[in-house]
Design a protein that fits this description.
Beta Polymerase, domain 2; Rossmann fold; 6-stranded parallel β-sheet; 4-stranded antiparallel β-sheet; 15 helices
């Protein structure tokens, strides 16, 4: 049996290619049925995300796995095979296992350490199992990949730091407030990063959201999206004392928040802290606001410095994770080779036992009637001889299962004892 992975990701193919190759919930069932019934395919799985599309295949030894994957993608996604092939990467056997473990541990992601890919991989595995496209080999391999990903997250700090500007803002807010469950967030403007930061804050527990924008319709649209409250742009200053976290992304040509304004706001708040995130360019908030006591102001450059530092840290941690992946690949290969040896050992034992039983039956015909004691002695003698004959080959098969020449020994034993495939 052979294992291979064929696919595209954010490094090998532009988004317009990934879009054409992507699978969704509406077509994944038919695609898996198509994949499973292709000649030589024993098991298969489709992983499709915004950044990657991968086909994992377990095939018969003689099957052309690469050709099968290429033809499947071309025919199923209705593209020319010659068009898609240049964007594809391929991994086989050990390299494929190594790649799978790296994907599960998010070492192959656009943002190293992001947690979403593991959930996406589990979902792909679950769907493939439901449709009978995964059984013994891939099931065991994917289950191990999930354990490897958990080990990487447990033993390293791969996912412990924010590596996007919007999430860096959330992490800084947590440092200031500790618990976000009692905070109120105001978004001033409709910038993409402000929108992303507000979304992260809501997901992390901030329960109340206010939205203001010079165009009220846009503010109302954002408020509906997050179940928030619209505040008229002309009066947002008057509600600032109710707000703990302010995200500004307005196109105003001048500062909309000044030190004098913020001193009054903090006074009304009775010196409770406020966190201001200025993601606008040009800036919406006067930098001098940061000198106001109990006001914490961060602009986009501050957040980017946090992100850059965290990215560098994650890359260092990724090197530790790579060592774990190498260890786990070696362990998995030992397990897989041991599994391959077992059927041969069982066949050898069954064949030798059949030969022994046939010879004992033939000799009994010559000896005539034997006493129970004689029959017992004959059984013990012949079984002992068979066990001694089998001991050497079986011990060597087990000992060399994980060695580079283990497959050669396996094939040699099969030929010597005529065990077939």
């Amino acid at each position: 049996m052979k294992f291979c992975i064929t696919g595209v990701n954010h490094r090998t193919a532009p988004v317009e290619v990934r879009e054409r190759l992507a699978f969704d919930a509406a077509n994944i069932s038919d695609a898996l049925r198509d994949l499973k019934h292709r000649p030589g395919v024993l098991e298969g799985m489709i992983l499709s995300t915004c950044n990657r599309v991968e086909i994992a295949l377990a095939t018969e030894d003689g099957a052309e796995a690469a050709r099968c994957a290429d033809e499947f993608l071309a025919e199923n996604r209705h593209v020319e095979r010659e068009w898609v092939t240049p964007y594809l990467y391929r991994f086989a056997d050990r390299d494929a296992i190594h790649h799978l473990f790296r994907v599960a541990a998010s070492l192959d992601s656009m943002v190293v350490g992001e947690p979403q890919i593991l959930g996406q991989l589990k979902a792909a595995w679950s769907v493939a199992r439901e449709h009978g496209a995964i059984s013994g080999f891939l099931d065991a391999l994917l289950t191990r990949a999930f354990s490897v990903a958990k080990r990487v997250r447990t033993e390293t700090e791969i996912g412990s730091s924010a590596v996007s500007v919007s999430f860096a803002a959330v992490e800084l807010a947590r440092e200031i407030f500790g618990n976000l469950k009692n905070t109120t967030v105001m978004v001033v403007g409709a910038g993409k990063m402000a929108e992303a930061a507000a979304r992260h804050l809501r997901r992390c527990g901030a329960p109340r959201l206010m939205v203001t924008n010079r165009t009220r319709e846009r503010a109302a649209e954002m408020a509906r999206q997050w179940d928030g409250q619209v505040v008229d742009y002309e009066r947002f200053n008057s509600v600032l004392p109710q707000v703990d976290i302010v995200i500004t992304s307005s196109g105003a040509p001048h500062y909309i928040l000044t030190p004098e304004q913020m001193k009054k706001v903090v006074e009304v708040r009775k010196n409770r802290p406020m966190f201001l995130i200025d993601i606008a360019v040009p800036r919406n908030i006067d930098p001098a606001v940061n000198k106001v006591e109990n006001v914490f102001l961060y602009d986009i450059d501050d957040l980017q410095r946090v992100v850059d530092s965290n990215v560098e840290h994650r890359q260092q941690v990724a090197n530790e994770a790579e060592q774990i992946i190498q260890e786990e690949v070696d362990r998995m290969l030992v397990r897989l080779r041991a599994r391959e040896v077992v059927p041969t050992i069982v066949s050898l034992q069954e064949q030798l036992e059949a030969m022994r039983a046939a010879e004992v039956a033939r000799m009994k015909g010559r000896f005539g009637t034997l006493t129970p004691q004689q029959e017992e002695a004959l059984e013990a003698l012949t079984r002992g001889l068979i066990n001694k004959i089998a001991h050497g080959p079986i011990s060597e098969l087990r000992r060399n299962a994980a060695e580079p020449d283990g497959e050669q020994l396996l094939n040699a034993v099969r030929r010597v004892f005529r065990l077939g495939a």
